[in-house]
Amino acid sequence: MDGVIWVMRYYFSFSLTLMIALMSCGGDEGAPGSNPDNITFITQPSAQVGHTSVFSFQPQATHKNGDALTFKIEAPAWLNYDKSENKVSGTPDWDRLNSSFRVKIMATNGIDTAIQRTDIQVTLGEIVCGTNFGDPADSEYILPFEPRQTYKLQNGNCPTNPNWGHQRTFAYDFGTPMGTNILAMRGGTVIASISHQPDVPDCSVGGGNIVFIQHSDGSVAFYGHFKQNSVMVEVGDRVNQGQLLAQSGNSGCSAGPHVHVQVYRQAGPYDRQYSLPINFSNSDGPLNSQGSLVIGENYTAL
Question: What gap in Å lies between CA 185 and CA 192, rounded to an integer?
Fold first, then answer.
């Protein structure tokens, strides 16, 4: 009997100790006595952000009694919380495209604690036209025409005139006459090739006669508007930088003979938001403050 009483006493003592411990741990809603209903959040983070956009949010809340509140933020490492400005900010970038993340904001007056949780989706954002293109000397690309040849840049990156095309995209149009030899800007593997389109402007066929070359880092160069039956490479071919690809033409959606060159982040989708800023290591001609070639200027391949 004494043994039974001892077991009952031990069980009761253990249960009471465990209950006290659990109560002392508290939780998301604060310590014992905390009333989250006393705190009202008056701002809510946006539920989505473009991958190139700055996510910025200032948490705000009020206490029923007018007490001052402090905030604690739990968020992904790429988001920074500046306590002095009470601001959460950061840019998701490509690596977080199509992913979601949670921001947890805790507001407290030292007694009451309330929690605000928001799940935020990273969507495809616009390109940043003000991007720095870097030093041309470090570029992996060369101009798409032969050395000592000079051609005018008819259209470029993010032009201000909407009639010129290339709206909010990175791309170049060089005014190369019909039959000009066009070279590979960078080595890689041909993943698409078309050569049968006639040299008649037709926007229903886009770039007309084209070549797509994928590089070792996964990026893809697009060359367009080649002369009919001039394309000299096929899908699966390995090409070297400076290798002859085709001749300039007037096929596809074209207003006159030229070559269109553009680099995308990966092999599809080929939306303008995936275009990349490039310049050329062998280019002799003016650059703007970003390091981009300038529309209307002449460029010589060295």
Answer: 16
- 283-284 sheet: strands from edge to edge: 238-239, 188-193, 209-214, 220-226, 259-264, 172-174, 150-155, 298-301, 283-284
Dist CA 253 CA 263 (whole Å):
18
Q: Is residue 242 included in any domain, yes or no?
A: yes
| Predicted confidence (pLDDT) per residue in 112-160, tens digit | 999 999 999 999 999 999 999 999 999 999 999 999 999 999 999 999 8
Write out the E strands in 110-164: 113-123, 150-155
pTM: 0.80
Pairing of strands 113-123, 48-50: parallel
- Residue 118 sits in the same domain as residue 151: no
Specify the DSSP class assigned to residue 227: P
Burial class (CB in 10 A: 0-12, 13-18, 19+), 157: buried
Q: What is the DSSP letter of 77?
A: T
Identify the domain containing residue 104 by its residue range.
36-123
Count CA within 13 A, CB hemisphere, residue 246. Answer: 32
CA distance linking residue 77 with residue 70, whole number of Å: 21
15 within some domain: no
Nearest to 128, CA basis, from 92, 174, 164, 74: 92
Q: Decide if 66 contacts 39 (C-beta within 8 A).
A: no
Integer Cα distance of 196 and 216 in angstroms: 28
Q: Is the dihedral of CA 267, 269, 271, 274 positive or negative?
A: negative
